[in-house]
Amino acid sequence: RSRRLVMGVSPLACGISGPPFSVSATVWVEDDGGNLAVCEAGGVTGGIVPGTGTGGATFLGPNPVPVALGMADFGAHSIDMAGPRYQLQFDLSGLPPVLSRTFSLGGAVTITGPPSICPTSSEMYLADPGFDTYTWSIDGVPFDWQQVTTVSQPPLVAGTSYTLSVEARVDGCTAMA
User: Fold this and answer.
1) pLDDT tens digits along 154-163
2) What is the distance between the alpha carbons of residues 40 and 36, in angstroms, rounded to a whole number?
3) Is the dihedral of CA 161, 157, 127, 116 positive or negative?
4) Which residue did the predictor score with more confidence, 177 or 153?
5) Nearest alpha-carbon partner for 167 in 109, 98, 114, 92
6) Distance separating alpha carbons of residues 57 and 51, to the nearest angstrom
7) Are 142 and 136 in contact (CB under 8 A)?
8) Can the peptide bond before residue 96 be classed as cis, meaning omega within 30 degrees of 0?
């Protein structure tokens, strides 16, 4: 008798190619002994957990997916919008739902701020919110670890060009701008 759903294979933590972003998962249906319920004949329905990922994103692909030999393979599915911290929920009638781990799609971060500054002034720069960590660098040398940073003299010298960059991480995925 089928007793529970288990995440057999969760989506990869980072998806960078898209949109749409390929999302692969396999859900197992297990019996009382933790064995695959190979005689289960239902269909598992999958979807994005509300409040995760990007609002308005859609989980694309056949839904529900039929259970075959105790497994429902969501290998041909995708999500149409980039975003951090997506989570999927899978349901089969009569059993408690199962959740995937969180994962992020897109791998992009943007910097908001002026395109250039004078060495005698200071300017504030902002990276997209929602990341776990930030590392700001000037010409590859890290100097700040917050979502918002201020660049001023020193280290700026008149007549010299510099490159400001930020590396942001979420769910173990790195995005750079």
Assistant:
1) 566 777 788 8
2) 9
3) negative
4) 177
5) 109
6) 11
7) yes
8) no
pLDDT above 90 for 32 = no
Q: Which of 23, 163, 43, 45 is nearest to 102 (CA)?
A: 23
Compute the distance between CA of residue 156 and CA of residue 153 in angstroms, rounded to an integer: 5
Place of tokens 């839904």: 63
- For residues 76 and 60, is the Cβ–Cβ distance under 8 A? no
Tokens matching residue 177:
């701008």
- pLDDT 10s digits, 1-19: 778 999 999 888 887 777 8
Give CA–CA dist 33/6, Å, rounded: 13
- Pull the structure tokens for residue 108: 């992009």
What is the Cβ-side half-sphere exposure of residue 106, based on CA atoms within 13 angstroms?
Answer: 19
Residues 6+ apart with CB under 8 A from 87: 48, 49, 52, 53, 99, 100, 101, 102, 103
pLDDT in tens, 108-142: 788 999 988 777 788 999 998 888 899 999 999 99
Radius of gyration of the chain (CA): 22
Query: Burial level of 114, CB count in 10 A (0-12/13-18/19+)?
Result: exposed
Please give the Cα distance from 136 to 156 (Å, whole number).
Answer: 15
